[in-house]
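Bench notes, afternoon.
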Amino acid sequence: MTGTMTTSLSVLVRWIVHGHVFFVSLSWLSIHLSAVVTISKLVERLNAVLDRDGYTLAPSETISGYFVYRVTTADRGVSGAVKNLVFAVDGPKPDIVLSDAINNDIVVVRNDEYCLVYERPIQAEGLLWRDLLAWWIAKTGEVDDTTAARSLYSRLLRSLAGGSDAEKVFFTTYYREFKDLGERLPALVPQVYLHYDPFTIRELRGQKRLGRQRMDFLFLFSATRRVVMEIDGAQHFSIGERASLPRYAQMVSEDRALRLAGYEVFRFGANELFGESGKRQARDFFQRLLRRHAIIG
Protein backbone atom coordinates (compact mmCIF):
# COMPACT_ATOMS: atom_id res chain seq x y z
CA MET A 1 0.00 0.00 0.00
CA THR A 2 1.32 3.41 -0.89
CA GLY A 3 0.26 6.97 -0.23
CA THR A 4 -0.65 8.73 3.01
CA MET A 5 -2.90 7.03 5.51
CA THR A 6 -4.01 7.20 9.12
CA THR A 7 -4.15 3.94 11.05
CA SER A 8 -5.14 2.97 14.57
CA LEU A 9 -3.49 0.44 16.84
CA SER A 10 -4.22 -0.96 20.25
CA VAL A 11 -1.10 -1.75 22.25
CA LEU A 12 -0.74 -2.77 25.88
CA VAL A 13 2.46 -1.73 27.62
CA ARG A 14 3.35 -2.90 31.11
CA TRP A 15 5.50 -0.31 32.86
CA ILE A 16 7.43 -1.56 35.87
CA VAL A 17 9.19 1.09 37.93
CA HIS A 18 10.80 0.31 41.28
CA GLY A 19 8.64 -2.76 41.75
CA HIS A 20 5.35 -1.06 40.92
CA VAL A 21 3.40 -2.30 37.91
CA PHE A 22 1.57 0.06 35.57
CA PHE A 23 -0.41 -0.94 32.50
CA VAL A 24 -0.48 1.76 29.85
CA SER A 25 -3.04 1.14 27.13
CA LEU A 26 -2.20 2.86 23.90
CA SER A 27 -5.72 2.23 22.60
CA TRP A 28 -6.74 3.43 19.17
CA LEU A 29 -3.51 5.34 18.78
CA SER A 30 -3.78 7.54 15.70
CA ILE A 31 -0.57 7.87 13.74
CA HIS A 32 -0.13 9.75 10.48
CA LEU A 33 2.18 7.65 8.33
CA SER A 34 3.04 7.06 4.70
CA ALA A 35 3.01 3.27 5.01
CA VAL A 36 1.32 0.46 6.91
CA VAL A 37 2.06 0.74 10.63
CA THR A 38 3.28 -2.39 12.37
CA ILE A 39 3.72 -3.04 16.07
CA SER A 40 7.44 -3.51 15.53
CA LYS A 41 7.68 -0.09 13.87
CA LEU A 42 5.73 1.53 16.71
CA VAL A 43 7.97 -0.11 19.31
CA GLU A 44 11.03 1.02 17.36
CA ARG A 45 9.83 4.63 17.40
CA LEU A 46 8.92 4.55 21.08
CA ASN A 47 12.32 3.09 21.88
CA ALA A 48 14.03 5.92 20.03
CA VAL A 49 12.43 8.26 22.60
CA LEU A 50 12.79 6.04 25.67
CA ASP A 51 16.44 5.36 24.92
CA ARG A 52 17.35 8.95 25.69
CA ASP A 53 16.46 8.30 29.33
CA GLY A 54 18.01 4.85 29.47
CA TYR A 55 14.90 2.68 28.95
CA THR A 56 13.66 0.30 26.30
CA LEU A 57 10.47 -1.59 25.42
CA ALA A 58 10.95 -5.35 25.25
CA PRO A 59 8.38 -8.18 24.94
CA SER A 60 7.94 -9.96 28.27
CA GLU A 61 4.93 -12.25 27.75
CA THR A 62 1.86 -12.77 25.56
CA ILE A 63 -1.84 -12.24 26.23
CA SER A 64 -4.30 -13.82 23.78
CA GLY A 65 -1.49 -14.23 21.30
CA TYR A 66 -0.30 -10.61 21.56
CA PHE A 67 2.96 -9.45 23.06
CA VAL A 68 2.95 -7.48 26.28
CA TYR A 69 5.88 -5.09 26.27
CA ARG A 70 7.81 -4.31 29.41
CA VAL A 71 9.75 -1.10 29.96
CA THR A 72 13.18 -2.10 31.21
CA THR A 73 16.47 -0.38 31.78
CA ALA A 74 18.46 -0.22 28.56
CA ASP A 75 22.16 -0.87 28.27
CA ARG A 76 23.58 2.47 29.36
CA GLY A 77 26.95 1.88 27.75
CA VAL A 78 30.14 3.13 29.33
CA SER A 79 29.96 4.80 32.74
CA GLY A 80 31.73 8.12 33.13
CA ALA A 81 31.95 11.17 30.91
CA VAL A 82 34.30 11.69 27.99
CA LYS A 83 36.91 14.18 29.18
CA ASN A 84 39.69 14.17 26.58
CA LEU A 85 39.64 12.64 23.12
CA VAL A 86 43.19 12.24 21.77
CA PHE A 87 42.98 11.08 18.16
CA ALA A 88 44.22 11.24 14.56
CA VAL A 89 47.80 10.50 15.59
CA ASP A 90 50.05 10.74 12.53
CA GLY A 91 53.55 10.83 13.98
CA PRO A 92 55.57 10.23 17.14
CA LYS A 93 53.68 9.44 20.32
CA PRO A 94 52.54 12.59 22.14
CA ASP A 95 53.91 13.33 25.60
CA ILE A 96 50.94 14.03 27.86
CA VAL A 97 50.93 15.45 31.37
CA LEU A 98 48.13 16.29 33.80
CA SER A 99 47.87 20.03 34.16
CA ASP A 100 45.20 19.57 36.84
CA ALA A 101 45.05 16.09 38.34
CA ILE A 102 41.85 16.86 40.24
CA ASN A 103 39.95 17.89 37.13
CA ASN A 104 41.81 15.38 34.93
CA ASP A 105 42.90 18.18 32.58
CA ILE A 106 45.71 17.25 30.21
CA VAL A 107 48.32 19.08 28.19
CA VAL A 108 50.37 17.65 25.33
CA VAL A 109 53.86 18.94 26.09
CA ARG A 110 55.68 17.36 23.16
CA ASN A 111 54.70 16.12 19.69
CA ASP A 112 51.40 17.98 19.89
CA GLU A 113 51.64 18.68 16.17
CA TYR A 114 51.11 14.96 15.52
CA CYS A 115 47.77 14.55 17.28
CA LEU A 116 44.43 16.25 17.87
CA VAL A 117 42.77 16.72 21.26
CA TYR A 118 39.02 17.29 21.50
CA GLU A 119 38.08 18.61 24.95
CA ARG A 120 34.53 19.84 24.43
CA PRO A 121 31.64 18.08 26.24
CA ILE A 122 29.92 15.30 24.31
CA GLN A 123 26.27 16.23 23.81
CA ALA A 124 23.25 13.93 24.22
CA GLU A 125 23.28 13.05 20.51
CA GLY A 126 26.96 12.09 20.67
CA LEU A 127 29.89 13.47 18.72
CA LEU A 128 28.62 14.58 15.34
CA TRP A 129 30.62 15.71 12.32
CA ARG A 130 29.19 19.20 12.77
CA ASP A 131 30.59 19.31 16.35
CA LEU A 132 34.01 18.20 15.20
CA LEU A 133 33.93 20.71 12.37
CA ALA A 134 32.95 23.58 14.68
CA TRP A 135 35.84 22.67 16.97
CA TRP A 136 38.23 22.49 13.98
CA ILE A 137 37.14 25.91 12.75
CA ALA A 138 37.75 27.40 16.20
CA LYS A 139 41.15 25.69 16.35
CA THR A 140 42.37 26.65 12.87
CA GLY A 141 40.60 29.99 12.37
CA GLU A 142 39.27 28.83 9.00
CA VAL A 143 36.38 31.06 7.92
CA ASP A 144 34.93 29.03 5.05
CA ASP A 145 32.96 25.98 6.17
CA THR A 146 33.56 24.01 2.97
CA THR A 147 37.31 24.60 3.06
CA ALA A 148 37.39 23.74 6.76
CA ALA A 149 35.47 20.49 6.17
CA ARG A 150 37.94 19.45 3.48
CA SER A 151 40.97 20.26 5.61
CA LEU A 152 39.56 18.38 8.61
CA TYR A 153 38.75 15.35 6.46
CA SER A 154 42.27 15.43 5.00
CA ARG A 155 43.81 15.70 8.46
CA LEU A 156 41.86 12.70 9.72
CA LEU A 157 42.70 10.68 6.61
CA ARG A 158 46.38 11.55 7.05
CA SER A 159 46.40 9.69 10.36
CA LEU A 160 45.76 6.50 8.36
CA ALA A 161 48.71 7.03 6.03
CA GLY A 162 50.84 4.52 7.92
CA GLY A 163 48.01 2.01 8.21
CA SER A 164 46.53 -0.51 5.84
CA ASP A 165 44.58 0.16 2.66
CA ALA A 166 41.65 -1.54 4.41
CA GLU A 167 41.55 1.24 7.02
CA LYS A 168 41.44 3.87 4.30
CA VAL A 169 38.61 2.04 2.49
CA PHE A 170 36.66 1.84 5.76
CA PHE A 171 37.09 5.55 6.51
CA THR A 172 36.49 6.95 3.03
CA THR A 173 33.49 4.70 2.38
CA TYR A 174 31.73 5.97 5.49
CA TYR A 175 32.09 9.65 4.74
CA ARG A 176 31.30 9.20 1.05
CA GLU A 177 28.20 7.03 1.54
CA PHE A 178 26.63 8.83 4.50
CA LYS A 179 27.49 12.48 3.93
CA ASP A 180 23.83 13.15 3.06
CA LEU A 181 22.97 12.77 6.75
CA GLY A 182 24.26 16.32 7.01
CA GLU A 183 24.11 17.69 10.53
CA ARG A 184 22.98 14.29 11.86
CA LEU A 185 26.15 12.56 10.64
CA PRO A 186 28.06 10.93 13.53
CA ALA A 187 31.80 11.58 13.42
CA LEU A 188 33.88 8.51 12.62
CA VAL A 189 37.04 9.24 14.60
CA PRO A 190 40.29 7.48 13.63
CA GLN A 191 43.31 6.49 15.72
CA VAL A 192 41.94 7.22 19.18
CA TYR A 193 43.93 6.72 22.37
CA LEU A 194 42.19 4.38 24.80
CA HIS A 195 45.08 3.75 27.19
CA TYR A 196 48.08 5.98 27.51
CA ASP A 197 51.34 4.52 28.75
CA PRO A 198 54.01 7.24 28.95
CA PHE A 199 56.89 4.75 29.06
CA THR A 200 58.77 3.24 26.15
CA ILE A 201 59.46 -0.48 25.95
CA ARG A 202 63.05 0.20 27.06
CA GLU A 203 61.92 2.27 30.02
CA LEU A 204 59.53 -0.47 31.15
CA ARG A 205 62.49 -2.89 31.53
CA GLY A 206 60.47 -6.02 30.97
CA GLN A 207 57.34 -4.90 32.81
CA LYS A 208 53.99 -5.42 31.12
CA ARG A 209 52.79 -2.56 28.97
CA LEU A 210 49.19 -1.38 28.83
CA GLY A 211 47.45 -3.17 25.99
CA ARG A 212 45.58 -1.59 23.11
CA GLN A 213 46.77 1.93 23.52
CA ARG A 214 44.94 3.07 20.38
CA MET A 215 41.69 2.12 18.73
CA ASP A 216 41.46 2.14 14.93
CA PHE A 217 38.06 3.87 14.85
CA LEU A 218 35.51 5.15 17.34
CA PHE A 219 31.90 6.34 17.23
CA LEU A 220 30.44 8.27 20.16
CA PHE A 221 26.68 7.90 19.68
CA SER A 222 26.23 9.57 23.07
CA ALA A 223 28.50 10.31 26.02
CA THR A 224 28.16 6.68 27.10
CA ARG A 225 27.33 4.73 23.91
CA ARG A 226 30.71 4.10 22.36
CA VAL A 227 31.48 1.81 19.43
CA VAL A 228 35.00 0.60 18.66
CA MET A 229 35.97 -0.75 15.24
CA GLU A 230 39.24 -2.56 14.63
CA ILE A 231 40.73 -3.57 11.28
CA ASP A 232 42.94 -6.61 11.78
CA GLY A 233 46.00 -7.43 9.74
CA ALA A 234 48.31 -10.37 10.32
CA GLN A 235 50.12 -8.51 13.12
CA HIS A 236 47.06 -8.93 15.33
CA PHE A 237 47.43 -12.70 15.54
CA SER A 238 50.94 -13.56 14.38
CA ILE A 239 54.58 -12.73 14.86
CA GLY A 240 56.37 -12.64 11.55
CA GLU A 241 54.84 -15.41 9.48
CA ARG A 242 53.94 -17.63 12.42
CA ALA A 243 50.61 -17.63 14.23
CA SER A 244 50.91 -16.51 17.84
CA LEU A 245 48.39 -17.84 20.35
CA PRO A 246 49.61 -15.47 23.10
CA ARG A 247 49.13 -12.45 20.84
CA TYR A 248 45.67 -13.62 19.83
CA ALA A 249 44.77 -14.31 23.47
CA GLN A 250 45.82 -10.79 24.44
CA MET A 251 43.62 -9.32 21.72
CA VAL A 252 40.48 -11.22 22.71
CA SER A 253 41.15 -10.50 26.40
CA GLU A 254 41.26 -6.78 25.65
CA ASP A 255 38.02 -7.09 23.66
CA ARG A 256 36.31 -8.71 26.64
CA ALA A 257 37.49 -5.94 28.94
CA LEU A 258 36.08 -3.30 26.60
CA ARG A 259 32.72 -5.04 26.26
CA LEU A 260 32.41 -5.52 30.00
CA ALA A 261 33.12 -1.79 30.39
CA GLY A 262 30.14 -1.07 28.12
CA TYR A 263 31.79 -0.58 24.71
CA GLU A 264 30.57 -2.24 21.55
CA VAL A 265 33.48 -3.80 19.68
CA PHE A 266 33.50 -4.87 16.02
CA ARG A 267 36.43 -6.45 14.23
CA PHE A 268 37.14 -6.77 10.52
CA GLY A 269 39.76 -8.85 8.83
CA ALA A 270 41.71 -6.55 6.51
CA ASN A 271 40.99 -8.93 3.61
CA GLU A 272 37.27 -8.14 3.94
CA LEU A 273 37.83 -4.53 2.93
CA PHE A 274 39.67 -4.79 -0.38
CA GLY A 275 38.29 -3.51 -3.68
CA GLU A 276 34.67 -2.89 -4.54
CA SER A 277 33.44 -5.77 -2.41
CA GLY A 278 35.25 -4.21 0.54
CA LYS A 279 33.44 -0.91 -0.01
CA ARG A 280 30.12 -2.76 -0.09
CA GLN A 281 31.02 -4.63 3.09
CA ALA A 282 31.86 -1.37 4.88
CA ARG A 283 28.73 0.39 3.60
CA ASP A 284 26.45 -2.47 4.66
CA PHE A 285 28.03 -2.57 8.11
CA PHE A 286 27.57 1.16 8.64
CA GLN A 287 23.96 0.99 7.46
CA ARG A 288 23.13 -1.73 9.94
CA LEU A 289 25.03 -0.05 12.76
CA LEU A 290 23.42 3.36 12.21
CA ARG A 291 20.00 1.74 11.99
CA ARG A 292 20.64 -0.17 15.20
CA HIS A 293 21.40 3.09 16.97
CA ALA A 294 18.37 4.85 15.42
CA ILE A 295 20.51 7.26 13.38
CA ILE A 296 18.79 6.20 10.17
CA GLY A 297 15.43 4.53 9.58
